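Hey, sorry to bother you again with one of my protein questions. A protein chain has come my way and I'm curious about its shape. I'm sending you its amino acid sequence along with the backbone structure tokens. I owe you a coffee for this, so here goes:
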Amino acid sequence: MTVDAQRSRSSGKRRAVFFQFAGYPATVQRQVTPGVEQDRGVRVASDVHAVLPGVLDHGFMHHVLDDPSGLSPRAVRFLRHAAERTSLDVSHWPTTDELPLLSSRLPGVDVQATLTLFRRAAARYGGLRYRSVAWSFEETVTLVPVPWEADDYGPEDREAMADLIAHDTAHPYAVWLRGDGAVVYCFTGPHSAPAVPVFPGVDAMLEAEALYQECATWIPVSLDDVPGLAAVEAHAARLTSIPEASGYTERWWEQDGFRLHIWKTFAAVFPGSGARWAVWARSRSGELAARTFLTQART
């Protein structure tokens, strides 16, 4: 089917982008640039290898479902059991002729290197689709990394951006990929809003999703007189952080068979919204440990 993902921000001209989805195992449909793209994948510049995982020594990028390098075993299991690959039409990618205009719109940005990173992201994640249970989504999402055109930028924009998430339900916010590889969210209402960094990269977002999926099968833990967010967050220093799944606005911890999740994403994206937290236990012994943790956090 075809999904029409309309960019909607208060500044800049947001064109309609059409994402064509087909059944797995469709390949990513890309513009062919001589010397850049080959049958086995996308050749990327060596200076962006450290930003996204999944590049082999010979320089070709493979899709994350084919080569999940850099992901935890938990995230690999999630992708194998819950994700599929669709096709991604990136025929609207900026052309070489547009580079000077893009450079003039983004002074101080290495546009060529950034587009290389976006091309690499499209090769690794393009068309990845799964049913998300993350608090930010709770819907089917598809990763569609397609960079903005020059006319998509407003006068206040200072960083290169690409679309990242195509929603299957209406949301008042967009999810973009920033030129440094960070995943950012932005409110798309009538007033200008800042882009909020949520994850340092796409892999961290997938790692967090894997935790959400796993915790959906665990035991929710609470108390009649639950402690406040500040107390829980302060007490979390006693737990073991899960850094690969944590970002700038949401974090994960685990200890003794239970997990703690603190989520401030919508509080950052929508001023006035509240933060959330939750605890899940793998087993009854983990539930007892979690209750002890919460009781201590309350005192």
Summary: Residues 1-51, 53-58 have pLDDT under 50 and may be disordered.
